[in-house]
From TrEMBL:
Gene3D superfamilies: P-loop containing nucleotide triphosphate hydrolases. It comes from the Bacteria. Keywords: ATP-binding, Nucleotide-binding, Transport. InterPro entries: AAA+_ATPase, ABC_transp_ATP-bind, ABC_transporter-like_ATP-bd, ABC_transporter-like_CS, Oligopep_ABC_C, P-loop_NTPase. One of its GO terms (molecular function) is ATP binding. SUPFAM superfamilies: P-loop containing nucleoside triphosphate hydrolases. Pfam families: ABC_tran, oligo_HPY. Belongs to the ABC transporter superfamily. This is Oligopeptide/dipeptide ABC transporter ATP-binding protein. It comes from Jeotgalibacillus haloalkalitolerans. Residues 5-254 form the ABC transporter domain.
Length: 339
């Protein structure tokens, strides 16, 4: 079965312009050779620190950012370099939910109008009022009470529900959620995540779910891609993630997830990375993670590891010195034992 979305060796480089002539002197390599597949009906989680290229990837997939090179195939059809008409058709099928529903909704538009906007853009105006009310109901808002309200009259969680309704209006197959709950209170986060999961089951949606930490991703995603400085460091299955991670960077991210139990939380081991996050305008040589990796060697400074599938675990990993399963479990056991 071919993947719903197939991203091949995607690069997005932004020129850094300097001087009076504004000639590009260097490039910010926001995406530096990203390859990923997403199967229909699945959720691909993408995780990584701020600035690693997550939003650039999201914007490239929905057609808001022109890639420097590489291919993006949706249902086997390549639309990098596609014409305006093809892009228009594609965009209907791939929608995005943004981090901050307050800035992504027009403050002067009523909720009903915001949700109707994509329907108008695609001339799907027949039964529009009824359809918008259906959508409001689908995301748990009261169609009669909320149709005529402005964004500022809603809570953060309700505004995100409007953003979700708008994304659903054109019945897309793929929805990119770019940190959809990061700006919400913790208590509201779970409600929005549950809504997204219910909608996925009901409508057979495929998600790309972006976050800067693992707590929500590990709950939501079937597959998880870990990004660092414009590259995928590891791609692993949700189950593998529960009991084995092999990239030292994934391990450090995992160790930063707080335990819900306060006793466990106090006694757990945390892997603290040394040094600052390098700039994507001047990424380190070899493995981009080597400057902060506790396992790095001379080889990592000189050679770039490719993302390769480990046949035993099924994970894809770009690392010369992956963490062995036993080592990982030892850390995990220790955590449990100290508890
Ligand atoms: N339009 C742009 N022009 C120049 N640089 C950009 C632009 N968009 C993003 N960048 C840079 O690309 C890198 C990745 O950004 P982004 O994709 O927003 O990361 P993330 O979403 O993971 O925080 C950052 O260094 C950012 O400053
Ligand atoms: Mg972002």
């Amino acid at each position: 079965m071919s993947a719903l979305l197939d991203i091949k060796d995607l690069h997005v480089h932004f020129p850094v312009k300097k001087g009076i002539l504004q000639r590009p002197k260097s490039y910010v390599k926001a995406l530096n050779g990203v390859s990923l597949q997403v199967e229909k009906g699945e959720t691909l989680g993408i995780v990584g620190e701020s600035g690693c290229g997550k939003s650039t990837l999201a914007r490239s997939i929905v057609g808001l950012q022109q890639p420097t090179s590489g291919d993006i195939l949706l249902n086997g059809k390549n639309y990098s370099g596609a014409g305006a008409k093809e892009l228009y058709q594609m965009r209907r099928n791939v929608q995005m939910i943004f981090q901050d529903p307050y800035t992504s909704l027009n403050p002067r538009m009523k909720a009903g109008e915001s949700i109707a906007a994509p329907l108008k853009a695609y001339k799907k105006t027949e039964r529009m009022q009824t359809r918008v009310k259906e959508l409001l109901e689908l995301v748990g808002l009261n169609p009669d009470q909320h149709f005529d309200k402005y964004p500022h009259e809603f809570s953060g969680g309700q505004r995100q529900r409007i953003g979700i309704a708008r994304a659903l209006a054109l019945e897309p197959e793929l929805i990119i959620c770019d940190e959809p709950v990061s700006a919400l209170d913790v208590s509201v986060q779970a409600q929005v995540v549950n809504l997204l999961q219910d909608l996925q089951k009901l409508l057979g949606l495929t998600y790309i779910f972006i976050a800067h930490d693992l707590s929500v991703i590990s709950h939501m995603a079937d597959q998880i891609a870990v990004m660092y400085l414009g590259k995928v460091m590891e791609k692993l299955d949700h189950h593998a993630f529960q009991n084995q991670v092999s990239h030292p960077y994934t391990q450090s991210l995992l160790s930063a997830v707080p335990f819900p139990d306060p006793v466990m939380e106090r006694t757990r081991e945390r892997i603290v990375l040394s040094g600052e996050l390098p700039s994507p305008a001047n990424p380190p040589s070899g493995c981009v993670f080597h400057t902060r990796c506790p396992r790095s060697t001379d080889r990592c400074r000189q050679e770039t590891p490719a993302l390769i599938k480990n046949e035993t675990t099924g994970n894809e990993i770009a690392c010369f010195h992956p963490v062995e399963n036993e080592e990982y479990q030892a850390v995990d056991r220790e955590r449990v034992l100290t508890f």
